[in-house]
Amino acid sequence: MGIVGLGYVGLTLATVLAEAGNSVIGIEKRNDIVDMTNEGVPHFTETGLPDALAGVTRSGKLVATEAFDDSFTCDTYIITVGTPLSADGVARVDMIEAAARDIAANMADGALVILRSTVKIGTTRDVVAPILTASGKQYDIAMCPERTLEGKALQELRELPQIVGADDQAVADRAAAVFRKLTNSIVSVSGIETAEIMKLVSNTFRDVQFAFANEVARVCDAFGVSAHEVISSGKLGYSRTNIPLPGLVGGPCLEKDPHILMESARTRGISLEITSAGRLVNERQPEETVQFISSEIERRGLTGPLKINILGMAFKGQPETSDLRGSMSIKVLDALKKAHPNAEIGLYDPVTPQEVLTSEFPDEKTFGRFGDAVSGASVVVIANNHPSLGHISPRTISEFTSPGGFVFDYWNHFSHLPASELGDSYYAVGRSGLAPTRG
Question: For the UDP-glucose/GDP-mannose dehydrogenase C-terminal domain, which residue ranges apply (predicted)?
Answer without folding.
Answer: 309-416
